[in-house]
Design brief:
The protein has 473 residues and is of the alpha+beta class. The chain is built from 16 helices and 19 strands.
């Protein structure tokens, strides 16, 4: 490995690697990066049709197939593939942020009541079921229409759709390519937070680094209250990934694609298996957009009940995907190509001018939302032209540095809760086990992740927020 520029390291091609493997990180983060995650990044470089580099971002850690925090792009014309392990089980796990007209002083006296009601009104936990009572046919409609379905059924506004990646609805979804088991798992879970690292957090603005762009994003003052929501496609998306890993594994002899890790089973772009997976995966993408939109509506209702006002703002800043593959135009060796870009635990970070950005932000660049841990901070950044190196991708969070097993062995959830509440935070969770698994100490320092991100220039920070109250599944 060699350092090729500030914050950028590279493994040269060797032993069948088709491209180099690149790490966007800092010396400090590199020291703690698992060997297994680095090997996963190198393994991705073996895949057919891969362009430029296998990329690992500052929050990278060990995952399934791809490292979490991994990016790779494939060209169909050069034998490229699509790989479920390069997207992940929680398809379109993503983050959205809402601005409010409230200040820290206004919210603090009502924070406990607010968090209790949010925890009650937004269902969470393993296997949690939502407040909606949809038919299976309606869930299939959600798979096609995404957040649009929610808005048309009274859960939000058309203005919300203008502030969601893909406008909350990606073309090409087909629920007929989704198994009956996945459809059944998805039916009761629409409008639920889920468990694991999913959360609903009330935050306050701690620092503003670019006042002009922050204002465009709806962030005007320090101590302004912000809402962050992090969740995905629940059991629906998990089952889709599981189904297609099995399908592609069974078809390995048909495709004759050698992979260094069975978790990288894949199918050639243009094959039936690839086309079917993309249609099913996009169904989960739309399900997740709708899931976050429905919960946003309930969050707004809860705020209005607690503060007994309807002029609280609660405007959507933006909603970004983390686990997805999309076809985008990128420049490779001076030529524009249509590529299938896999982002596994990575946020799209387009600069100003890209047609994919909503008109509202087209002259500022895309808002990039990066959550940290529930004890430190989260960040709002903006995409840059330098991120062309990473197919306009950046980190998606702080990134774990300890496994859940390690956390449960060494951390008591009661102690974490007590420590955070001593700082004035409110922590709600279905169990102390969840709090232990998601303790601040199991994550990398998000401030260091942002430093590494800015060091390499792939995104630029706009504002920093810190937690006031958090609801975990």
């Amino acid at each position: 490995m060699k350092e090729i520029s500030k914050g950028v390291y590279e493994f040269e091609k060797e032993k069948g690697m088709r491209v180099p493997a690149r790490l966007y990180t800092s010396e400090k983060l590199l020291k703690d990066l698992e060997e297994g995650a680095i090997q996963q990044g190198r393994n991705v470089a073996y895949l057919p049709g891969i362009q430029k580099y296998s990329i690992m971002l500052p929050d990278s850690h060990y995952g399934y197939g791809f490292p979490i925090g991994g990016v790779a792009a494939f060209d169909e014309k050069e034998g490229g593939i699509i790989c479920p392990g390069g997207i992940g089980f929680d398809i379109n796990c993503g983050v959205r942020m809402l601005s409010t007209n409230l200040t820290y002083k206004e919210v603090q006296p009502k924070l406990k009541e607010l968090m209790e009601k949010l925890f009650q009104d937004v269902p969470s936990g393993v296997g949690s079921e939502g407040r909606l009572r949809n038919t299976q046919e309606q869930v299939d409609e959600v798979a096609v229409d995404g957040a649009l379905w929610a808005v048309e059924h009274g859960y939000g506004t058309k203005e919300d759709l203008e502030r969601i990646e893909e406008n909350g609805r990606i073309e090409g979804a087909d629920p007929k390519k989704v198994s009956e088991r996945a459809r059944k798992r998805g039916k009761p879970q629409l409008g639920t937070l889920g468990a694991g690292n999913h959360f609903l957090e009330i935050q306050r603005v701690d620092s503003i680094y670019d006042k002009e762009i922050a204002k465009r994003f709806g962030i005007t003052d320090k101590d302004q209250v912000i809402v962050m929501l992090h969740c995905g496609s629940r059991g629906y998306g998990y089952q889709i990934c599981d189904d297609y890993v099995y399908i592609m594994n069974n078809a390995r002899s048909k495709f004759k694609i050698d992979v260094p890790d069975r978790e990288l089973v894949c199918a050639p772009l243009g094959s039936k298996e690839a086309d079917d997976y993309i249609k099913a995966m996009y169904s989960a993408v739309n399900y997740a957009f709708c899931n976050r939109q429905v919960m946003t509506h309930w969050i707004r209702e809860t705020f209005e009940k607690v503060f007994k006002r309807d002029d609280l703002g609660l405007d959507l800043i933006y909603d970004v995907c983390h686990n997805i593959a999309k076809f985008e135009e990128h420049e490779v060796d001076g030529k524009k190509k249509l590529l299938c870009v896999h982002r596994k635990g990575a946020t799209r970070a387009f600069p100003a001018g890209r047609k994919e950005i909503p008109k509202l932000y087209r002259d500022t660049g895309q808002p990039v939302l990066i959550p940290g841990d529930m004890g430190l901070a989260s960040y709002i950044l903006v995409g840059t032209e330098k991120a062309s190196e990473t197919f306009y991708s950046t980190a998606h969070g702080a990134g774990r540095c300890k496994s859940r097993t390690n956390a449960l062995r060494n951390i008591r959830g009661e102690d974490v809760k007590r420590e955070l509440e001593a700082r004035g935070q409110i922590v709600m969770a279905t169990s102390n086990k969840v709090i232990a698994e998601e303790a601040p100490s199991v994550y990398k320092n998000v401030d260091e992740v942002i430093k590494a991100t800015e060091l390499s220039g792939i995104s630029r920070k706009i504002a920093r927020t810190v937690p006031m109250g958090v609801a975990k599944g």
